[in-house]
Amino acid sequence: MKAPPPSSPAPAAHSGAAHEHRWLVLGVIALAQLMVVLDATIVNIALPSAQQELGFSDGNRQWIVTAYALAFGSLLLLGGRIADLVGRKTVFLVGLVGFAVASALGGAAPNFSVLVIARALQGLFGALLAPAALSLLTTTFTDPRERAKAFGIYGAVAGAGGAVGLLLGGLLTEYLDWRWCLYVNLAFALVAFLGGLRLLHPGAPADRPKLDIPGTVLVSGGLFCVVYGFSNAETHGWRSPLTWGFLAGGAVLLVAFAWWQTRATHPLLPLRVVLDRDRGASYLAMFISGAGMFGVFLFLTYYLQQMLRYTPVKTGLAFMPMVAVMIVVSVIVQNSVVHRVGAKPIVPLGMGLGAAGMAWMTALDATSSYAAHVLPPLLITGAGMALIFAPAMSLATAGVAAHDAGVASAMVNTSQQVGGSIGTALLNTLATSAAANYLRGKQPTPDVVVNSQLQSYSTAYWWSAGFFLVGLLFTVILYRKGPPTPHPVDAAPVVAH
C-alpha cells in the first residue's frame, strides 16, 4: 500500500534548520568539520615541542596521533547511528562540548598519559560530531542546486582541513606554545556551539529503532583492530603478531559484522545504504583518496622541512595554493557540472589528476625550487582532490532515508579515516624500507643520506599514485552514467517506517 504522506514528515523532523537559515547552518557545520579534520594534522606540528616538554620517548610519540585515530575511526558508525536515534542537533552539540573539554584537557596535560587520554576523548567526541554534521547538511539542503553548492563548500573544507591544520599548527607552535594547538579548538567549538544552538531545529526522529548492540560491538572492534594493526606496522613491522594478529582479527570481526547486518532486525548499517552503486563507489573513492592524499600532506611536509629547510609556518603556507584550488574547483564543479553529467566522468578524472600529481612529485630532488617544481604538482593534486571529495560526499548521502542519514554520513567519515590510517602506515613502512635498502652497502655520507631520504619520498609518491590509479579504475566501473537520480533502494525504507 502506497503511503507518501506518512513518509514526508520524517525528513522534516530531521531537517535541522529553518529554510531561511540554511547558509548560516552551512557555516556552523563547516566550522565543526574543519575543527575535526584539522585536528588530525595540527598536533603533528606540535609533537616535537610537546615531546620535549613532557619528556616522552620517540616510541611513545606515535600514540598522540594513534589514540585519536583509533577512537575516531572505530566509533564513527556508532556515532552516526546515535545521531539517527537521538537527534542530530543534540548529538552535534554534545559532540562539540565534549571535543572542547577534551581539547582543554589535552592543552593542560601535565604528562604523556593525560595527553593520550585527551586525544582518545577527542576521537570519541569527534566520532559523534562528524557524522552528525554531515547528516545535518544532507537533511538541510534538499534543493539539488543548493545541495550541490553546499557540498562543494563542505567537500573543500573536508579536503583542505589537513593543510589548514599544518599552517595553524605551525603558527601556534612557533609564536605561542604547542598547547595552543589544542586550546584553539575551544574557540572553534564555542562559535559552532552558539550557532548550532540558535539555528538548528531539535529534529528528534519520530521512529527510533533499537540500537544494534551486537553489530556495534563487531564493527567497533573490527575497525579498532584494523587501525591498530596498521598503526603497529610503523613501529613493529609486518611480521609482528601485534600487526598481523590485529589485522586478521579485524578482518574476521568485519566479516562477522557484514553477516550480522543481513539478519539484524534493526541493523547498525542497513545494507540498503551501502549496496547502491553510486553510494558504494563514493565510499570507495573516499577510502582510496584518504589513503593516497597522505602522500601529499605527510611526505611533502617532510620534504619541505628536511630538504628545503622550511619552518613550520612556511611549510603550512606552501600548502595554501593547493587549498585555494581545492575550494574554487570544488565549488565550481559541484555547483555547475555534477548535476549535469553525474560523478562518473568527474571522480575518475580527479583520481587521474591525483595520480599525475603524485607521479610528478617523484621528480623532486634536493635542488628543486618551490615555484618551478613543487607548486605545479601540488595544484594538480589539489584539483584532483576537489573533483573527488565534493561529488563523492554528496552522492554518498544523496537519497538516503532521513532515519539513515546519520549512519550514511558516518560511512563517509569512516571510509576516509580508515583509508588515511592505512595509507599512513603503509606509506611510512614502504618509505622506511626504501631508505634502508638505498643505504645498504653504502657509506652514510651526507649526500648518500639525503639521497636515501629522497628515495623514501619518491617511493611514497609512486605508491600514492598507484592508489589513485586503482581508484580511477573502480570509480569508472562502479559509478552510473548520467546525472544522479533517486533510486528505489532508498524509497522502500521510508515507506516501511
Q: How many DSSP-defined strands?
A: 0
Give the terminus-to-terminus CA distance: 13 Å
The count of domains is 2
Task: Give the SSE order as H and E letters.
Answer: HHHHHHHHHHHHHHHHHHHHH
Q: Which percent bin holds the helix content?
A: over 70%
Strand percentage: under 5%
Main pleated sheet: none
| CATH superfamily heading of the largest domain | MFS general substrate transporter like domains
Summing up helix and strand content along with how strands pair, one would put the structural category as mainly alpha
Remind me, CATH topology of the largest domain? Growth Hormone, Chain: A
CATH architecture of the largest domain: Up-down Bundle
CATH class of the largest domain: Mainly Alpha
Number of helical segments with 4 or more residues: 21
List the uncertain runs.
Answer: 1-18, 487-497
- The pLDDT mean sits at 81
For the CA atoms, what is the radius of gyration?
22 Å
Gross morphology: globular
